[in-house]
Amino acid sequence: MIILLSKHAQDSKNILVNVIKGAGEIGVAFQTAVKDNVITVLKNVGQITTTATGVVSDIVSGAIAAVFQTGSSLTTGSKNIALGAIKGALEVGITSVDATQKVVSGAIKGAAEVGGDVAEVAVSSVEGAIEAAGEVGANTEEIAKTAVMTAVKAADEIGTEAGGSVRKALLSTASLPKDVVRSVLG
After folding, report:
1. At what angle do helices 96-114 and 140-158 cross, to 10 degrees?
2. Within a 10 A sphere around the Cβ of 43, how many other Cβ atoms?
3. pLDDT at residue 17 above 80?
């Protein structure tokens, strides 16, 4: 099953490269393509399991690679990826917390894999997760905390420098809820 899921993630990346090239930008069409890919892959799996939800992270990493491959903005891309992937995961029954964890960690992992700015992607994916939560009626404070915790954990797994950069970026970004960021970072 894991090989099948990895193939779906690679196929998703290829589709997303074509969407970006066809649209000429990262916007609603890209966000919708990410959402549709998450839904299709998870529905093909049939049962939502830990392995199946893990593929959400793989799809997000692949989507980051697609954005990078096309020379598009990782800031815009990661926010739209988070919006689309979280909405798609929620639509097939993954909890908002689990979806947020998979999406944010996948974005950061993807950024590190392509040599992108991990802090920039962390901030944008956290912003996207919070926005997605608001759009679907989920608890935005809970999602904000989950997204920030996940971003820091994923960055720390990359290395001390990445973890420090992400913490600094999260604390200095005006669009994030400062009280939530500070409560998570201590």
Report:
1. 30
2. 12
3. no
Which of helix, strand or coil describes residue 73? coil
Chain mean position to CA 173: 18
**Could you tell me which residues come within 8 angstroms of residue 159 by beta carbon, excluding any fewer than 6 positions away?**
none
Which residues neighbour 26 within 8 Å (Cβ) at sequence distance 6 or greater? 20, 67, 72, 73, 76, 77, 80
Average pLDDT of the chain? 88
Tokens matching residue 70: 């096309």
Q: Is 162 exposed, middle or buried (0-12, 13-18, 19+ CB in 10 A)?
A: buried
Measure Cα distances from 173 to 6, 34, 110, 111, 125 in Å.
34, 25, 21, 19, 13
Q: Is 71 left (phi over 0), alpha (psi -120 to 50) or beta?
A: left
- Residue 13 tokens, joined: 């990346």
Comparing 93 with 170, which gets the higher pLDDT? Answer: 170
